[in-house]
Amino acid sequence: MIRIEHVSHWFGTFQVLHDVSFQVPAGEIFGFIGPNGAGKTTTIRMMATLLEPHDGRVLVDGMDVVDAPDEVRRVIGFMPDSFGVYERITVEEYLEFFASAHGIGPGARERTISAVMELTELGQIKGKLVQTLSKGMKQRLAIARTLLHDPKVLVLDEPANGLDPRARIEMRQLIEELRRLGKTILLSSHILTELSDMCTSVAILERGRLVAGGSVDSIAQTLRPERSVRVRVLSPPVDVEAVLGRGPSVLAVEREPDGAYRVQYQGGDEVLASIVEHAVQQRLRLVRVEPDQNDLERIFLEVTKGELQ
Amino acid sequence: MSAPDLPVSGEPLGAGLASPESSAESSAEAPERISRSSGAFGQAPVPPGRPDLRTRLRDAVLAIVRDPNPILLKELRATLRTPLFIRFLYLATGLVAIVVLMGSAAVSEGDTAPAEVGRSIFHLFFCTLVVVLLFAAPSQAASAFTLEKETRTWESLLLSGMSPTRVVMGKFFAIYGSILLVVIAVAPVIGVAFLFGGVSPVAVLVAFYWLLGCVAIAVSFGIAVSVRLDSTRASVAATTVIFVPLAMMWSGMIVALGELAREQWGTPFDGPIWFGPAFAERTDEPDAWALLLGLPAFFFVMLTWLNLAGAIAGVDAPGVDRSSGLKRWSLFAAAGTAATVVGLGTMMADADDAGAVTVVFGMASLAFIFSLIALVFANEPPLPPRLGAPRNVLRKLLYDTFGPGAGPTLRFTFLVLGLGIGGMGALATVVRYARFPNSVENASADLGTAFLTFGGISVLCALAATAAWLRALLRNGAAARLLAVVLFTGLTFGSMVGAAVMNPRVIDTLDHYVPPLVGMSPIGPMVLAGRSLGHDMPSTEELSTGLAACAVYAGLALALWLAVEVRARQVRKLVDAHRAQLLARLGPAPKSAAEVPSGDEGEPPA
Q1: Same domain for B43 and B81?
Q2: B 305-344 residues with CB < 8 A to A
């Protein structure tokens, strides 16, 4: 749905993007990750037709953002990282304004706004002035605005930035709901745990270069074949370390100070399932099996060097 | 990919969420839905082929009535909910009322006739209102776009699908509307003047007409500045610093014209707002309608249009045609200016005066309007935009010859200057001969008009070509304009200083003899035009100098035009080579990325 092909860009003499290529398949939630100043926003602004690449090509739904910016704008909904809203109009007036701006006729407008407000749960506050809304509600309103023209692609730059925990969870639920509606979503965020829950694929950018791209599992496998999980067992009756150590493909088991066991193994989710099955057969009463470290965080730390440009 | 119980993108979400009533409503709007590429949420319509002018005009009128400009509605709502605006409304009304009441109390003391008091109140009211509005209107307009940039709403506005014209016009009418509210709130105060008499309702209406015309210029100027800057403070400061002195000059000129009107028409000149009472006394005369209503209307429309066209060009993306709007303005400005100069000539009683008016007002039009036309396109990039070329053969020919891009735009500038200045000179001559066929003064008027016409065309074409050539070299329109103006001004003053060094009394004797150094300067042909209207005809040497100056500037214009065309071809070759390289490296774009399968295929390696 989105193809970034050998894109380079300069601000004056400073090169911000170096031959960046990746692709966002249709219907996915795609995580776009990188430290501050990595070139994420520059790339995103190119997708949104706000910036032209100096070299390479950016295609959205098969259309070049340089050759067909109007057509691209019709299929893309963009929420920038720090956005503003018009403060002295109501939620409904705000959505009416953008619906009208998108050329949705007066008859269809009311229906469209109702549908969008229902989806984003803004219906109950439609008469409130935007300036009285919380930050989370303003984020919702901004997403609602991007949905008015029914874009196939949503590009959300730091959508959960500055939100409280409840608003973050609600935002995540909304994004997953949008994915179920068939939208392709490119999500840029610093909160890797949230991205790992939602995203099927990621691209990691550092100093204007793509350092990793693809599905989270495939990158994790490529980077380091061995993985580890933390296992908690209820009132361990036997030598748990020995039992777990006999599991398939298990490399090492060690007890941690909080009573959990860290199991290191080689392989993917199939192997993990076999280890759990083995533990249950050995009558271990498992209460929790959790990743030792978030995969996405691990990938991020492995592939980036923490350098700023 | 999508949940089976929910509609996917491309299917109407309404089908999943809407009630039976809304289904019935949607079927009633079936034609509207047909025009949408997908029904979900109400997809933005895909524009069909360009309809004819009549259909476009009808659609535009219907759209205004049924669905007003969204920015206009949004801005008016926001403005009326802003406490500061309401306070300003009270403050402006109170201030004008207090000034008028105190002024009327001061004037009415002693033996002053009631009619005199009424007239004083009339002038006091409008002067106070002009001062308040000419400060407030551009300042308010100066934040129109900078606030959008500062509050980070600008990008969503750009991506909203609205055309730059719609955005700018929405802002303009919203701010103009809010200023109109202030005028309506303050207007009843003028009723005090009617209590004393001496002021006719026609005079009041004409004064409001001028006031609202000036406000339109002020608002559009603020908007034009606001588009170019990112900070509200800078924008308000720049607008005030530039506009207020210009407004004071403009006011001074209007007052000076009042003295002229008193001499010519014998109308009263008892204050700066003389045009209201003057028109009220001459409502039966066509010249009063032309000069006090028609001519101001032309200036109000021309200057407002210029500012708004500049603002629209500023909102447009760099890759699109940004000069066509200004080209339409330049056609209007050139035609209107030529018609004004010719029209003023027809009001004169003999051939000598008609020739003098053509030359004097023609020079003013060259200095203010035609030189603006010569410089307004100096920021045109070498190549036309990638998008927007018409498919119709005739339109394509016109687009390629006079459309966007440095070469075609320079050709267009030459055409407008040639037709505008040439038409002005030719028409003024024809009308003069039609009115005074046997006048002996036609010869000197002909010579003056000829120098004005050919000199004006050649010098201003050279100015336009110099600016375009500098733009091609420097890639900066503002610097190109500035350098071109500095160069031509320097040549003018240099020639004058050189001539003065050779003969200290040269300036005093210019109406008897124009030395070659002055004659060859950029204003040389115009000086010779004025000299031709003198008592003795120019000598052969002066005529030769004038002809040589015209030839030199025309030659310069042609040479620089060729240089600009060559430069544009070089840039075209570079750009084409770069695009060919890119295509060879990346291959043609796939028809639809939706065909790309989901998964790892095609992704770059980790």
Answers
A1: no
A2: 317-319
This complex has an ipTM of 0.80
- Cβ–Cβ contact B9 with A under 8 A: yes
Distant-in-sequence, close-in-space partners of A59: CB < 8 Å, separation ≥ 6: A2, A3, A5, A65, B589, B590, B593
The DSSP element (H or E) to which B427 belongs, if any, is: helix B406-435
Say yes or no: B410 and B470 in one domain. yes
- Which element (helix H / strand E) includes A184? strand A184-188
β-bridge mates for residue B177, sequence order: none
Structure tokens at B309: 């066209």
Q: Could A83 and B22 be called an inter-chain contact, meaning their C-beta atoms sit closer than 8 Å?
A: no
Q: If contacts are CB pairs under 8 Å, which of residues 142-201 in chain B contact chain A?
A: 151-153, 155-162
Whether B82 has its CB under 8 Å from any CB of chain A: the answer is: yes
The domains located in chain A, with CATH, are 2-214 (3.40.50.300), 224-293 (3.30.70.100)
The number of distinct structural domains making up chain B is: 3
DSSP 3-state of A253: strand
Residues of chain B found within 8 Å of residue A212, distances taken between Cβ atoms? 606
Q: Which residues of A touch B599 (CB under 8 A)?
A: 25, 215
Chain B residue numbers touching A145 (CB-CB < 8 A): 156
Contact, B5 vs B11, CB < 8 A?
no
Give percent of chain A with pLDDT exceeding 90: 28
Q: What's the pLDDT band for A239 if we cut at 50, 70, 90?
A: confident
**Best mutation target, B41, B154, B232, to test chain A (most A CBs within 10 A):** B41
- Is-contact B417 B486, C-beta < 8 A? no
Partner-chain residue, chosen from A21, A27, A111, that has the shortest CB–CB distance to B1? A27
The dihedrals phi and psi of B35, each to the nearest 5 degrees, come to -75, -5
pLDDT at position B541 is: 92
In chain B, the percentage of residues whose pLDDT exceeds 90 is 56
CB B443 within 8 A of CB B355: no
Helix (H) and strand (E) counts in chain A: 11, 14
Q: With contacts defined as CB-CB under 8 Å, which chain A residues touch B588?
A: none
Comparing CB atoms, the residue among A22, A70, A105 nearest residue B603 is A22
- What pLDDT score was predicted for residue B331? 97
- Position B10 pLDDT exceeds 50: no
Contacts of B594 in chain A (CB under 8 A): 1, 26, 61-62, 152
What's the predicted TM-score (pTM) here?
0.84
Residues B357 and B371 in one domain: yes
Q: Is the pLDDT of residue B475 over 60?
A: yes
Selected residue with higher pLDDT from A63 and B8:
A63
pLDDT at residue B440 tops 90: no
Nearest CA in chain A to B385: A67
List chain B residues with CB under 8 Å of A100: 67, 70, 73
Give chain A positions within 8 Å (CB) of B77. 88-89, 93
Q: Tokens 């299929």 belong to which residue?
A: A75
Residue A185 pLDDT:
93
Interval B330-339: pLDDT, tens = 999 999 999 9
Distance from CA of A81 to the nearest CA of B (A): 10
Smallest Cβ–Cβ distance between A103 and the set B33, B161, B318 belongs to B161
**B388 phi and psi, to 5 degrees?**
100, 0
Q: Are residues B21 and B47 in the same domain?
A: yes
CB B592 within 8 A of CB B37: no
Domain boundary, last residue among B37, B66, B95 = B66
CB contact under 8 A, B70 and A97: yes
pLDDT of residue A294: 62
Span B386-410, average pLDDT: 89
Ranges A44-53, B49-58, B590-599: which has the least confidence: B590-599
Structural domain range at position B129: 68-316
Residue A152 above 60 pLDDT? yes
In a domain, B594, yes or no: no
How far out from the chain centre does Cα B48 lie? 31
